Amino acid sequence: MSISSILDKLKKAVLEGDDELAQELAKKALKEKIEPIKIVNEGIVPGVQEAGELWKQNIYFHTDIILCAEAFRLAMEVIEPKLSAGEIGTSGKVLIGTVAGDMHNLGKIMVNATLRGGGFNVIDLGEDVSQDIFIQKVKELNPNILGLGCYMSTTMLEMKEVINRLKNEGLRNKLKVMIGGVPCTQEYADEIGADAWGKDAFDSVEKAKKLMGV
Ligand code: B12
Question: For the segment 146-205, what is each residue's pLDDT rounded down to a tens digit?
């Protein structure tokens, strides 16, 4: 099978939520020595992106998206360790989490993978992360960057609250804050006093490097 055929099939498996096939194809892609980042960018991510488009057009429903998310997760499980096999942590330490009330995580998983590929040490706090946990972990782990993921207009305010808590706890000047997710914009980042907005996974790596002066 040619490289482009493996990547096309992987995209289709993710899009169609065939988790076992997606994982198998991710393994096959590695075996064929396709660069891990290329597998993510040209196989796995386009599958999720197309699912998002089908959702917008009311062609895909929740069940389709959940299946797609699982296929995405299993394929990424195979690729992620390879992405982070580089020079982990040389670019800086990023603590990342989806804010309270929000369970979306696909975009965050992607950002994690690309940040790791970009040499960052990424610690993922998961989803529905409370302000208390963000604060506790910032104190404990002393990250260079705090990444806040938010995917719904209803949870956007929570990012502002986390930044306010950082200020109140005297932590705001010790790190940079980068936000991202479906409803986020540069304007909103400016409004709530975040240092950067990551439009997509690659933009996030670029912005993170800029914040670190790398
Ligand atoms: C997949 C999905 C789900 C899946 C989530 C699976 C999972 N494990 O994440 C399921 C089906 C579970 C789900 C549930 C819900 N969802 Co939903 N979901 C989506 C959907 C279709 C795609 C989101 C996605 O994963 N996109 C693909 C990723 C790759 O893109 P992304 O998230 O934008 O991420 C990129 C960038 O934003 C950036 N980025 C992402 N995170 C971060 C973080 C940082 C720090 C940085 C720097 C950058 C960054 O980089 C990423 C990669 O390029 C969107 C619709 C859409 N078109 O966006 C709705 C959407 C987000 N959901 C929505 C809603 C309403 C819900 C539910 C409330 C539905 C319900 N009634 O149950 C629940 C919420 C549950 C909860 N409390 O969180 C709404 C939100 C509307 C709003 N108020 O703003 C949307 C917009 C759909 C819609 N138009 O109505 N959802």
Answer: 999 999 999 999 999 999 999 999 999 999 999 999 999 999 999 999 999 999 887 998
Q: How far is the CA of 4 from the centre of ligand 1 (A)?
A: 28
pLDDT at residue 212 is higher than 80: yes
Residues 66 and 132 in one domain: no
Sequence-ordered alpha helix ranges (H) in the chain: 3-15, 19-31, 36-39, 45-56, 62-83, 106-117, 131-141, 156-168, 186-192, 201-212
The pick from 37, 104, 154 for probing ligand 1's pocket by mutation, whose C-beta has the most ligand atoms within 8 angstroms, reads 104
Chain centroid to CA 75: how far?
Answer: 14
Q: Say if residue 130 is in the same domain as residue 161.
A: yes
From atom 77 of ligand 1, which residue's Cα is the shortest distance away? 102
**Total domains present in the chain:** 2
Element (H, E) at 199: none
Burial of 111 (0-12, 13-18, 19+ CB in 10 A): buried
Of 77 and 114, more confident: 77
Alpha carbon distance 28, 101 (integer Å): 37
Mean pLDDT value of segment 43-50: 88
The answer, yes or no, to whether any atom of ligand 1 lies below 6 A from the CB of 155, is: no
